[in-house]
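Colleagues,

For the teaching module next term, I've prepared a clean inverse folding example: a structure given as tokens, and then the sequence designed for it. I'd like students to try predicting residues themselves before seeing the answer, so please don't circulate the second half yet.
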């Protein structure tokens, strides 16, 4: 009696888990923002693969996204490296931030509805009312959220996305700034005044207030970045005292900070 052959099971291709790749990307981005990856250091892909239990293709996809966003460098035949700290780069990022936010404020004055502006005002009032119970990290997150919501008033999604990338890349310097300065009172006043000027549709005054606010952050961020360069350089010297630092292992101050005069 002939036996029936069992039909072969159809091959179902494995689909890539988009959510797991996104979670990996977010975790690696957070580490890069905190400088858990030392400036100039090579990223150990094998160690990360073992830690997250993930294969090389999705890991490389996440790392390549960080290259595109300016957190990492990729060197052919060598791999991925955490970008060195650069005062010049930070200064340039702040110039981009000023340009983007000035355009966002202009568009907010001309396009945002009264209800949208009131929503921003209500958000910041709630932050001020609860500020006494916030840590410096929480203050930074609320400040970033204020600027995120401010930019959203422009009704320009592309502008919002570009500004989000800049915000992430200057995150560490701003966090240190909040811990070292009397940021709260100045930021509260500056944000509240900016909202009032937008509410009154006073374009020129709102642009001036925004520029002054960000210029103050720029000057402090440049000083903090110089201190970070020195900190990591001295740590490298302590670990490798017998060897002079090389461009691939020790971040260098690439140039003197440019003039801090405001760029319109």
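(Answer key — instructors only)
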């Amino acid at each position: 009696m002939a036996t029936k052959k069992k039909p072969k099971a159809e091959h179902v291709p494995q689909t890539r888990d988009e959510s797991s790749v996104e979670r990996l990307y977010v975790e690696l981005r957070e580490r890069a923002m905190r400088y858990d990856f030392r400036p100039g250091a090579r990223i150990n892909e094998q160690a990360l693969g073992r830690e997250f239990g993930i294969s090389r293709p999705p890991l490389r996809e996440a790392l390549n996204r960080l290259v595109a966003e300016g957190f990492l460098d990729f060197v052919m035949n060598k791999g991925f490296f955490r970008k060195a700290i650069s005062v010049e780069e930070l200064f340039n990022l702040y110039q981009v931030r000023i340009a983007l936010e000035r355009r966002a404020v202009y568009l907010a004055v001309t396009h945002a509805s009264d209800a949208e502006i009131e929503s921003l005002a209500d958000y910041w009032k709630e932050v001020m009312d609860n500020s006494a119970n916030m840590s410096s990290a929480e203050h930074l997150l609320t400040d970033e959220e204020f600027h995120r919501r401010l930019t959203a008033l422009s009704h320009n999604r592309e502008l919002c996305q570009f500004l989000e990338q800049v915000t992430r890349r200057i995150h560490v310097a701003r966090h240190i700034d909040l811990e070292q300065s009397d940021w709260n009172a100045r930021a509260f006043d500056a944000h509240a005044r900016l909202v009032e000027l937008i509410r009154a549709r006073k374009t020129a005054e709102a642009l001036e207030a925004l520029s002054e606010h960000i210029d103050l952050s720029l000057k402090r961020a440049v000083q903090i970045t110089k201190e970070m360069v020195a900190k990591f350089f001295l740590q490298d010297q302590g670990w490798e005292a017998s060897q002079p630092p090389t461009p691939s292992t020790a971040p260098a101050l690439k140039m003197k900070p440019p003039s801090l005069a405001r760029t319109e």
